[in-house]
Amino acid sequence: MTFFCPTCWKEIKGIDTICPFCGADISEYANKDFEEKLINALRHRERETVQRAVYILGRRKSIKAVHPLLKLFKQTDNTLLKIGILNALNEIGVPEAKEFIFKVIDSDTGIVKRMAREIIDRESINHAE
Ligand SMILES: [Zn+2]
């Protein structure tokens, strides 16, 4: 399991009680719903925080995040964010997330379409090995 500081979102060790990067008291977060916080961070006004939350939700294979991620994908015009969301959906890996990536290949254009294609291709190569 990978742990992330809920304040600066850097990767930390599960045993840390104080974030070694920003000094945040992490012990107080142990009892709170970290996944819920990450999903809330998808609505953060700073793009970098949103990107980070998308990435972490993917790494944590957060099934709860699938719908919020799909919604965010449809709302944003930011290509980098869209690609981040596709990668996260692929990591989460539930059928609904995978189907969405295929839908993007069919309906999107340009680099987002190409990246969706690449994610699916990469996946089939990994399965073949
Ligand atoms: Zn921190």
Automatic annotation (TrEMBL):
SUPFAM superfamilies named among the record's database cross-references: ARM repeat (SSF48371)
Domain of life assignment: Bacteria
Pfam families cross-referenced by the UniProt entry: HEAT_2
InterPro entries per the UniProt record, alphabetical: ARM-like (IPR011989), ARM-type_fold (IPR016024)
The protein's name: HEAT repeat domain-containing protein
Organism: Candidatus Brocadia sinica JPN1
